[in-house]
Every structure is written in structure tokens, then in C-alpha cells.
Amino acid sequence: MRVNDLKLHYPKAGVSTIAVHAGTYDDPMTGAVGTPIYQSSTFILGEDQYQAVEQGYARDRFIYTRYGNPSQWALQEKMAALEKTESAIVFSSGMAAISTTVLSMLDKGAHLIASNELYGGTYNFFHHELPSLGFSVSYVNPRDMAAIAAAIRPETMLLYFETLTNPLLKVVDIPALGKLAREHQLRLVIDATFTTPIAMNAIEYGAHVVVHSATKYLNGHSDLVAGVAVGARKYIDAIWPRLLAYGGCLDPHACFLFERGLKTLALRMKAHEDGAFQVAQFLENHPRTRQVFYPGLSSHPDHDLASHLFKNMGGMVSFAVGSDQAALQLLQNLRLMRQATSLGGVESLVSLPFNTSHAAYTADQRAQLGIAPGCVRLSIGIEDPQDLIADLAQALDRLPI
Ligand SMILES: *Cc1c(COP(=O)(O)O)cnc(C)c1O
């Protein structure tokens, strides 16, 4: 297959150039400038394919779409280039990428250490599924390196963390985790959904595999559910047989949408960051709000670490309005921002942790994590920031005193 091997001709290509060009399939028949959609479940078998199956390199040939498809390959090349590593596999959801990756990196009876502020779906998988398969999990404060080190046992194999926590956007020290993993010969998997490869490449800091829910910023248009695992070829090659077994492959048409979304990733992330920064500044100066969290604000407790690690501060902002009742009223008052869970799309979305991501927690448990009553989470889209600010201003002004 002829893909655009950008590395060969432009080894110093910037991230926007990579996002546009890397991996694009050069169709020799038509000269199409984009990757065609290979909407085919299976491929004609010849000598070469039979040999690949027999000799164990079926991942490198087209045989059947769960095994591989040109639409997946193009996308995987682009993701590997964006994460500055060798290989990637796309999945039918972020959770398929996460569960398949984690299960491929654990031996029988292994222990893993994970953040105590994980994405809910990941927590459910770790808490309900892994123990029933004979694995054990310790949950630690992701900002406490001493506690993470202290949780290591002889049977520990894996560290699993997210780059930014939800909803308070605590910045996790990925380089320190990479160092710890190296010292103790542990594997490190990082969920970089909230930061994207535009902000940081966790593999450069010692992560072995980076996973993303592509449903969010990578695709960026709230019209697709997908996931991806990225890393050195030897790790991704070990994930691939599990993909075959668990079955979470990505459909070719979804690959097309995902690849199209990725082309504007750098551009969109700039707009998300610009809008989120302006909205965060507005909220910080508004009398009705308290506890505004945005890593790009100098008031954020992890601002220094974020400035050191991230080339882009992203589009997530959270703040509190004093009570969950007031937060519910605020949502009713908003006219432009839509009430929906999920994040990372071109349209701004708003949700409340107390009745969505953290509904299973008691008010005390939420307080312990630092989630104040009336906490509101914003995913800032790419609209004109002044329109978002005007919407928030009118919604805050109409809250009862
Ligand atoms: C949404 C999300 C996931 C799950 O991804 P799906 O595509 O919904 O399966 C995992 N991790 C994080 C941080 C997420 O935000």
C-alpha cells in the first residue's frame, strides 16, 4: 500500500503538516488527494496473503477488515506520526482501545496501579471486570508520586493514568511516571484524550502506549465514536491479537470521518485553547463564580507543570456556582451552549459532574476529590469566544442571588 511517508521527505514536518498529510493513501488508480473509503469486509486472497497468515505476519496484509483495512492503515500512520512513534491501532470506541490495550499488557495474576480520578467507564472496567479476571488494582492520588511508588508490589506490571483529571483538570506529572516505570520496569499506559498529541507526546516522556477516545478532540465533530492505541511497534503488535479476539475494530466509513477530523486537529486545538482561556478569564472575574479551573490560568494549582508539559492548554474549563441547584438553573439559562455529556467537539457543551460523570459518588466523596457543590464542566468549542462569554454572562446574571 502506498501511503504518504512524510518522515522520508520532511523529517522535520510540523504538527499541522503531519495532521494534513501523514498516512494519506496515494490511490494509484485515480490520483485522489484523500484516502478512499475501502468499504469492504474482506479482500481477495492470493499467494502472498496465504503466506502471511501461515508465517504470522497477517497484520501486514489485507485479509479481512477486523485484521486490517486500508482505511484503518492510513489513519493509523497519521496517529503514529502525530504521537511521534511507530505504530497504532484504531478501535470502535475509546473503551475498546482501553480494555483491549490493558488486557494485552497484563500477565496472569498481575497488579496494576491507576489514578483514583479515572474516567468513569475506565474505572468501571478496572473495578468490576479486572478483578473477576484475577487482576488486582490499587487506586492512588495521581498527584502523589510517593503514594504511587509505595503502591508498587512484586506482581505490579502496569501504571495507568490520564494526562488531565476530570473535572478539575489536575495535571498529572507524566515525566515522573515515566521515570518511575523505567526504574521499576513497569509498563506505563497514558490516556491522553483531554490533551491530544498537539499538547504533548507522552511516549517521549516514557509512556509505552498512549490511548485516546477519538470520539472527543481527535475526531472533533461529535459525529463518531472511536478509539486508538499508539506506541512502539512491539507493543502495538501485542495488542493486535487481542483486537482480533475481542473484536472492537473500526469500520472503514468511521475511519474516513476520523481521518478527516484529524486533518484540522492542530487548527481546532488552537481555537479551543483560545476560547477556553478567554472564557476562564471571564469566569474568574465574575462575582457569581468560584473555583475556576483551567490549566492555562496562573491561578490553577498545576499551572507551572502545565506550562512546562503542554504546548496547548486545551478546551476544558470547570467552575462552581455554590450549589447544585444553582448549577441546574444555570444550564436552563444557557442559550448557545448545549447540555450534553462528552467533550472535544466544535460545539461548546456543558455538563454537571454531580448528575453525570460523578453521579455514583456521594456529596462527601465529591468534596474529597475537590469537586465543589455546583461544579460545572465546560467543553469549549470553536465558536467566537465573545458569543460564549455573552451566553455565560446572561445565564449567570439570571441566577437568583
Ligand atoms: C470519553 C472518554 C473515554 C471513553 O471513550 P469512548 O469513545 O466513549 O469509549 C475514555 N477516556 C476518557 C478520558 C474519555 O473522556
UniProtKB/TrEMBL annotation:
Gene3D superfamilies named in the record: Aspartate Aminotransferase, domain 1 (3.90.1150.10), Type I PLP-dependent aspartate aminotransferase-like (Major domain) (3.40.640.10)
Protein's recorded name: Cystathionine gamma-lyase
Gene source species: Undibacterium macrobrachii
Alphabetized Pfam families for the sequence: Cys_Met_Meta_PP
Stated family: Belongs to the trans-sulfuration enzymes family.
Classification lineage: Bacteria, Pseudomonadati, Pseudomonadota, Betaproteobacteria, Burkholderiales
InterPro entries hit by this protein: Cys/Met-Metab_PyrdxlP-dep_enz (IPR000277), PyrdxlP-dep_Trfase (IPR015424), PyrdxlP-dep_Trfase_major (IPR015421), PyrdxlP-dep_Trfase_small (IPR015422)
Cofactor(s) it depends on: pyridoxal 5'-phosphate
Top-level taxon: Bacteria
Keywords: Lyase, Pyridoxal phosphate
